[in-house]
Backbone:
């Protein structure tokens, strides 16, 4: 898929079909993560791949805003090192790259950041020095997305020309 089309059509998915995502696609998603750039090329992040149904259900229990993750095919926990002030920028970049890499193969995904961190740390043996930044759940969408439109503000209310507040409209 063309990169722009991939960005344009990708939506966050919270309802998944039971269809299995092939191992090669999962590998591509993880490879997309690995290839993403980090501040100072520190590559401080670590990823935990969750495929086991019991662990997916646990993810939902440990979440305050991602119950839907129980229904996905696999999930990736994104851990970043808060000693780098830019660690959450790195998290955002890798999340988007994984989601786009998946969507290129029509695999949908959703993100959640609402996490019961104490339980989470225990359940997945997350070391104290790493921040639990987000979880992405992946799977084929439960239904076709054609009807759903993105809800975004128009470009001219986002982009200014040369200085803040100057309209970019000619
Ligand atoms: C930083 C960030 C945090 C998010 N946290 C959650 C979350 O906790 N739970 C959830 O269901 N979705 C979460 N989302 C998904 C957003 O709700 C979603 O990106 C937004 O509604 C746009 O969705 P759309 O692209 O399908 O239109 C998060 C997205 C981002 C970028």
Residues:
């Amino acid at each position: 898929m063309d990169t722009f089309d991939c960005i344009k059509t990708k939506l966050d998915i919270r309802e998944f079909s039971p269809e299995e995502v092939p191992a090669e696609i999962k590998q591509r998603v993880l490879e997309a993560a690995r290839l993403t750039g980090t501040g100072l090329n520190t590559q401080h992040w670590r990823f935990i791949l969750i495929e086991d149904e019991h662990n997916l259900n646990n993810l939902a229990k440990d979440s305050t805003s991602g119950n839907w993750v129980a229904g996905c095919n696999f999930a990736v926990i994104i851990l970043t090192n808060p000693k780098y002030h830019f660690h959450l920028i790195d998290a955002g970049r890798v999340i988007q790259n994984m989601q786009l890499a998946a969507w290129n193969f029509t695999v949908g995904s959703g993100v959640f950041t609402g996490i019961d961190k104490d339980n989470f740390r225990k359940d997945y043996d997350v070391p104290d020095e790493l921040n639990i930044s987000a979880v992405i759940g992946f799977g084929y969408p439960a239904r076709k997305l054609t009807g759903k439109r993105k809800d975004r503000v128009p470009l001219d209310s986002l982009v200014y020309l040369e200085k803040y507040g100057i309209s970019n409209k000619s």
Remarks:
- The mean pLDDT is 95.
- The chain is about 30% helix and 15% strand.
- The domain at 3-157 is CATH 3.40.109.10 (NADH Oxidase).
